[in-house]
Amino acid sequence: MKKVEIYTTMFCPFCARAKKLLNSKGIAYKEIDVTVSGDLREEMTRRAKGAYTVPQIFVEDVHIGDSDYIQMLDENGKLDNILGIS
Fold first, then answer.
1. Residues 6+ apart with CB under 8 A from 66
2. Is the pTM of this model over 0.85?
3. Which CATH class is domain 4-83?
4. What is the pLDDT along the chain (86 residues), one digit of tens a residue?
């Protein structure tokens, strides 16, 4: 299984949506909560090449995108391949 990381904040509906999609596919992921950590948010923004909204999703240390983007990848049939479950 590929390493999946998702940067989130509390009470974020987009984060919940992304996690729900990953959970529905049986994907284990590391959740990194940036709610109160400026250092972790800065790390996320650096890794995501300037993206500062949550969630930001990484697979094998490659930035995949946000909730809308992984939903689009799933609708286009590309997400399973990225996650290594196709």
1. 14, 18, 51, 53, 54, 55, 56, 57
2. yes
3. alpha beta
4. 899 999 999 999 999 999 999 999 999 999 999 999 999 999 999 999 999 999 999 999 999 999 999 999 999 999 999 999 97
